[in-house]
User: Fold this.
Amino acid sequence: MSNNLPKMKLSRRDLLVTAAVATTGALVIGFWMPQRAQTQMNHPDGATWAVEPATEEVNAWVVVAPDETVTVRIAQTELGQGVWTSNAMMVCEELQCDWSKVRPQYASANRDAKEMAPKWTLNVPGNGATDSSGGGEPQFGTRDPTGLAGIPDTLYRRMRTNAAASVKDGRYYLQLAGAEARELLLLAAATVWGVPVEEVSSANSVITHRPTGRTTTYGKVASLAAQTPHPNPERIRIKPPSEWTLMGTEQKNLDVPSKVTGTAVYGIDVHMPGMKWAAVKSCPVYGGKVKSYDFERIRREPGVISAIQFPIPDPQLIRGRIFGGGVAVIADSWYQAKTAIEKMPIEWDVPPEYASLTTADIRAKLMASLDEPGKVGVNVGDCDSAFRGGAKIVEATYSVPYLPRARMEPGNATVLVTDDRVDIWIGDQSPQETRRSAALITGIPETNVYLHMCHLGGGYGRNGNGPQAEQAIYVANLNRGTPIHLLWTREEDFVNTTYRSMGVAKLRAVLDRDGWPVAIEARTATDEQAPGQNAGFDVAARYFAPNYRFSMHSGRFHIPVGTRRGVGAPAQHFYRESFMDELAHAVGKDPYLYRRELIARTNLPYKADMIKALDMAAEMSGWGTPLAEGTARAIALEERGAEGGGHCTISAQVHTVSISKQGKVRLMRVDVAHDEGFGLVNPLSVKKQIEGQIVWFYNDAIHQECTVKDGRIEQSNFDTFPLSRIDEDPPQINIAFFKTGHWLDGMGHDRGPSIQSAIADAVFQITGKRYRDLPFRNHDLTWS
Amino acid sequence: MVIDLTVNGVRHSVDVAPETPLLWVIRDQLRLMGTKFSCGIAQCGACTLHIDDRPVRSCSIPVSAAAGKSVTTIEGLSPDGTHPVQLAWIELDVPQCGYCQSGMIMSVVALLKRHPNPTDQEIDAEVTNACRCSTYHRIRQGIRVAAAKVSAGGGTL
Assistant:
């Protein structure tokens, strides 16, 4: 079956690889062409990486073949969020081609190292987040040549997949790219016909000369369009949502057919002639390294070739995070390499200061930091005086554990280093960074580094990829001429990932005689390297108090922390929304109406949208109507960016939860009222994200926890780190959208963290017990 | 040791250590890459395939256990992606990252062979694969759609 991908053609690039490998000699059996060999051997239709087109491109994003096939280059990575389809929709909205002929393909990170972006992609049109006809307000709006912090000016601009920002940051230039391609195609047709371009228009890949009714197609004029520069690209405008015909419609994801037949190519599936496999053991205590290993003990194991010690990956290459050094064993097959490395004695050199650390030590330090001054994020009014004079004080301390992403595909990369070139086959959320790593490790310039992008078997946070590429590049660089496929076991994936930091928070409020807050103080503490420490509390209180103070506290710990799905927000939402429930209950008020009133008292720019979300979700859920014994409803607000007047996504969810007397939790129903801003790109993908994230965060709330003992993470696989299964999916999920007057933030995270506070509150309502430490499997939920 | 097994209707003789997990023979020797490795300890089900129509977690079963038996992988469900469960999955746009879906689909096919019209309890008890993207909501709907297709004569399991 077809999944809309072109048959691979032998390209100049393939020949270059062949030549490079042929000249290095060793271990190459005859001539081979990685791209072609791979696709012919296993996945004639499933490979996704960039290949040189048979037809000259119209622009860097669009290739139209004579058979009307439209290749759209995708610079972000498909990891389940739907970007393979939504990025193509943004280009094709403007291109006005036949959607059924569209075949996405990953953009070339190598070209991105060699070419600069067209000037017309560099400036955001319009007036920011509340201008419906403009390009919005990109999150990574600052230009940054490395692409690490901002958007580089190189060909494909931002190639990272993170911060749920693919639509938000890429939409304006992807729409512009589609529009430029359309105008070039129309201009080519007008040139052929000798008519003014103003008389020509297109739909579904058919170009019509309106006065005469003559038609041609994109495929027929594409090669002429490819050779004719746009006369004034600065004047190209993008369609506002009122003119959209493709964006905003539910489109099935273009990668799905390949994912139901097993033909989609993930990094782990890359195989090529002469390739060897590497299994790895890294020091399980971060910052530790290999003291000694005894390769002689496994030298004669089947298939074993060699062992290579690798140092602690250079923190400069992985955003300053410190993992462990380790050893890779190389063998003919991965199972042989893995079996052998498990038999090989390895002694670790563990930093003594980490060797006996436990979760309790880290928690104690975080708790102690809450009483230190901290970094003040917001300070409005005079909290200290207010607490001295208040009628009723409510105080609560919450905590969340370390959590990995635990994507289903264990970390892996296939790397071939020759004397002047690096080829990497990988699913990667940050190809520009990996390109830079390859150059720094091998000494080969970035312009000679080729990333062959594969779909990724789950992402959930850019840093979650860990040093998979860096380890593989290091090992392959010492085996030049041989493609090395390095694959982690599940256990190694736990060792080599970054974690969402453990966090604690102390919230205090002083209430007036009517139960409304006079002051709210929020202190949060987490690892000082943890990103997103201000989420949900920053700039202004989401729930009004005339005196409001928010401070961030921290400690420095050796567990590497990173951007797990939602970054700082899921923990902070748990703290904040739990506390709002506690305040409402403390004064006998309805948690929905209590929130509603406190939002109404704020000056937040989108407070009307927040109230709308609460009202809709409450109404959808039948809020206030009777429920069976042992069942309760809880409501919470989810917002990302609500404080600043920029991009923002607002939703409210009501969770209906039952708890058996034996303490078994069942999420029965979720009602979601969700902001659609000026418009969603692919509402189907948004619904899928909401559905998935409800259970993702339910999983966090109920099951997931990583603990530290002897300086290492104790959990290493899905037996000790359980995952929710289908029996925990709620029978009913109802999603309704409402229009608002701003561009949205992304959908890849923060769509469901309210389940955490909702379960806490349902437990309280049903059992009378209030728990403030996640996960709930650690607590006694029984009642009678 | 040479082991004979039939995979997707094709007979193979593989020369491999008999304790090698079936998963790695399927992936490395037969180059059928749809069946995935994830946990290696029979927890997650990403490696689910059928031996004689029975779903097994191939990461934790030695190839010797499949000797002389008939193995079906995701690639063997249909030549063109038109198995009723595959069609239901496309109709509902079930996969997100998709990595677990080969194993998930194989578990669902096995479920439907035993229970052509499964109850929610049967689904919960027998489809125990993990999906990290948590696509379970559409998986359950997809099972219903596939069951309806089969009972209406739209394909066989």
Observations:
- Chain A touches chain B through 66 residues (CB under 8 Å).
